[in-house]
Amino acid sequence: MRRGEKGILLLTAALVLFFGARNVIHLEHHPVSQDPGIPFYSTASHEVARKATDIIREQGCRNCHTLWATQSMVQFVPSPPLDGIGSLRNEAWLYKYFSAKDPQQMLPSRMKPKYRMPSYADLPENDRRLLASYMASLKVKDWYLKKVREVEYEKLTGHPMVDAGMHPSR
């Protein structure tokens, strides 16, 4: 090996050692966090999910709401996302909400009238019960629940949620 080649080899080895040591030190001070996984899940049976999804499609719910959305998609819809609604509301509350002649009486909204929740009181009772059952099955993992509450609150009020204890009534 020639004299110049030895110098290049030593310099390369020194750089590899330097950057390797730097990366190890960086990892010790900044541990890589594990991806906690997808926060959304449903406890509904396949049959309930299929029937409810048909009603959701027929009623055009996705014109205003997202379902199984990424956070970036949420900002482009006018109404709160449905992901995790079952972690915020129970089936009885949802049935009452879908049956209300004026849903704004149960959950006031600052949204423009064209984006406010319409009444589904005229839907057959079985459809309202099925929707309530399905929506109650849409859960989020505990570690994501705070974010769901914040997004719903901001969509309904137009203001960011400042206190983790504040959220619309169940």
What descriptors fit this protein?
170 residues; mainly alpha; Cytochrome Bc1 Complex, Chain D, domain 2; 2 domains; two-stranded antiparallel ribbon; 8 helices; 4% strand; elongated
List strands and helices in order, with pairings.
Layout: H1 3-29, E1 40-42, H2 46-59, H3 71-74, H4 85-88, H5 91-99, H6 103-106, H7 125-137, E2 138-140, H8 142-157
Antiparallel strand pairs: 1-2
Helix pairs in contact: 2-7, 5-7
Q: What can you tell me about this protein's structure?
A:
The chain has 170 residues and is mostly helical. The protein has 2 domains: 1-32; 40-157, Cytochrome Bc1 Complex, Chain D, domain 2, CATH 1.10.760. The chain is 54% helix and 4% strand. It contains 8 helices and 2 strands, in the order H-E-H-H-H-H-H-H-E-H. Strands 1-2 form a two-stranded antiparallel sheet. Residues 166-170 have low confidence and may be disordered.
E-strand count? 2
User: Can you count the helices?
Assistant: 8
- Report the CATH topology name of the largest domain: Cytochrome Bc1 Complex, Chain D, domain 2
Using only CA atoms, what is the Rg?
Answer: 25 Å
Average pLDDT, to the nearest integer?
82
- Overall geometric form: elongated
Short summary:
By secondary structure, the protein is mainly alpha-helical. It has helices at 3-29, 46-59, 71-74, 85-88, 91-99, 103-106, 125-137, 142-157; strands at 40-42, 138-140. Helix 2 packs across helix 7 (125-137) and helix 5 packs across helix 7 (125-137).
